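Hi P.,

Sorry for the delay on this. The queue was packed all week, but I finally got your sequence through. Input first:
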Amino acid sequence: MTEAIKTEKHEFQAEVREVLNLMIHSLYSNREIFLRELVSNASDACDKLRFEALQDEKLLGSNPELKIEIEVDEDAGHIIVRDNGIGMNKDEVIENIGTIARSGTRKFLESMSGDQNPDANLIGQFGVGFYSSFIVADEVTLRSRPAGSGESDGVQWQSDGSGEYTISQIVLPSHGTEVTLHLREDASEFLTSWKVRSLIQKYSDHIGFPICMIKQAEPSDDDDKDAETAVEWEAVNQASALWTLPKTEISGEDYQSFYKHVSHDFEDPLSWAHNRVEGSQNYTSLLYIPSRAPMDMMMQRDERHGLRLYVKRVFIMDAAEQLLPHYLRFVRGVVDSDDLPLNVSRELLQENTLVKKIRSAVVKRSLDLIHRLANKDVEKFNTFWDEFGNVLKEGLAEDTGNSERIAKLLRFSTTAETSAEQRVSLDDYVSRMPEDQEVIWYVTAENRKAAESSPHLEIFRKKGIEVLLMSDRIDEWVMGYFTEFDGKKLRSIAKGDVDLGADDDNKDTEKEKDAEKDPLLKRLSDALADEVTEVRASQRLTESASCLVLSEQEMALHMRRMLEQAGQAMPDSKPVLEVNLDHQLLQQVSEIEAEDQFKDWAALLFEQAVLAEGGQLEDPAGFVQRMNRLMLSAA
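Then the structure:
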C-alpha cells in the first residue's frame, strides 16, 4: 500500500462533473471501450518518452524497455493498467484529469444530452477517454511519476466520480503511470483474463509496444507450492507497428482496429490507403477516411485530430499540420519517414523540402481515396459528403493546384432534382446543359428552402434552365474563388445582369414597356434613394413583385449578416431593386398619387425583397407599422 505524504482535496471542473455523470449513469452500451482508451493513453505516454529519450537517454532509467502491463485481480475486483512512459507531475495530473480545456467539450455534452441518445462513440473524439473508466468503475486511482524525477515525486489521483477528487504526494519506485479501476458489480465480466485478452486483440493488437499480462506458471511436481505462486509476464499483442507490415499480411479487421486506436473513434472508417514509397525518399503512409465528423469539425483545429508523424518508427508528433492542408483535416492516419531527422521540430517541418514532397503526395493520395469512393461506392461517398463535404469545399480556395480535382468531387442539389437527397456532380450538370448554354448557374441561400423559393429562379424555371441550389454556410465564400469549371463560367442568378434571351414575340415590346413605365421606376428610385443604387425593370421575375440584385463581387445578404454577427466589419453597399412591371401590385402602385402612401408601398417592395433574400430588416417595427397602415387603407 502506497503511503501518502500530503493529500489535497479538489472539486472537479463543472464540465467534468457533467461528463462523469453521463459516464456513470448513461453510457452502458459498448462499455468495453474503457480498456481501449486506457491502453491508448498508455501507448501515447510510451511514445512521448521514447521521443524525449532521443535527447536524454537517462530518462529511461533502469527500465529502458517501454511496455504496457495489465493486471486482473478477480478477488479484489480490480483491473490495473500500467505503463513506464513519460509520466506526469502534480500540475499535469490536475490539468489533464481534473479539468477539460477542450473547446469541443460543450458540444460533446450537448450531443449526449437532451433528446439524443447518449453515444459512446464520441468519447475518444473529444479527448475525454480517461473518464470512460467510470463506465465500469465506482472508484479510480491513478498513480504517476515523471520520467527523470525522484521516487518522492510521485503523485496519486483518486475519485469515485462524484464531485471531488484527491491529489496526494507519494513515493513511487519507477516512472510512468498506473491506473487502478475498482469495478462495479455489473462489470464483473471484465475480471476474467480471457475477456481482457480478447479486448486487447480486438482494439490494441497493433500498438507498437508490448501489452503484457501475467501468465500463470504451470505447477511443478517437485515444488507445487513455489510453482503455484510463480508468475511471468507475456505479451498478448503483436506489438509491431501495423504500417510497417506488408499489406498482404494485414486483414481488413486489422486496418479497422488500428484506425480506432489512432483516431479514438469507435466506428469503422469508410476507406483507407496504405502506401510505401521508396527511391529518392523513403516513407510510408496509412490514411483513413472516417465515417463520421467530429461535432466541431467546421471550427476545430485541435491537435488531437490529424496525421501522426513518425521517423524510423519513432513517434514525433500528433497531427503534424505540415503534412496536410486544413481542408483535409478529417483525414486520419500515420506518416513514417526514413529520411527526416529524429529531432525534427514543427519549425523545421515547415521549412523542410522533404516534408513538402511528402505533403504533396499525401494530398494526392487523400484525394485519390475520395475519388475512389465516388467512383466505386456511391453509398459510402454520400455518407462522406454528408459528413465532410463542407470541409472539402474549403480546398477550392486553399488549394488552387488541386481545385479541378476537388471540383469533380462536389455534389449539389439542383432545381432538376425532387429531393435534397438527390445530388449531382458538376460533370452531370454540364452533360445535360443545352448546347447554347455557356454558364453554370447557381443560387446561394441560408437554407435549402430559401434557395428553392428564391424569386431569382422564376425566369430560369420558365425557360427550363437547371440551377444549382447552394445552402451551406461556406458556399457564398467558396464561390468567390471558384469561378470556372470545364471551360464554363459559374454565375450567381442573384448577381449582375441576367440576359437569357427574350422570347421572340416579346423582343419588340419589352423596351417599349420599360419606356412607358420609366416614371414609376424613377419615383421608386427617388423614394428608396437611401436603400438602393437604382430601381430597374426585371428580366428575372415572372411571379414575384420585386427582388434584390447584387453586383458580381458583392456578398449575399445572408453571408453578410452572418459575418456581421460574428463581429466582422463590413463595407457599406447598396443593392439594386428589380421590379416586375407586369405584376398587378406594381400596376396599382403606379396609380398612387399620395406621396406618403407611395413611399410606404416603395418601402414594402424593398423590405419584402430583403426578406426573400434571407436578409434582416433594420427597422422591423417600422415594417409592421407600414403593413398595418396599408392593410387598413385597403380595408
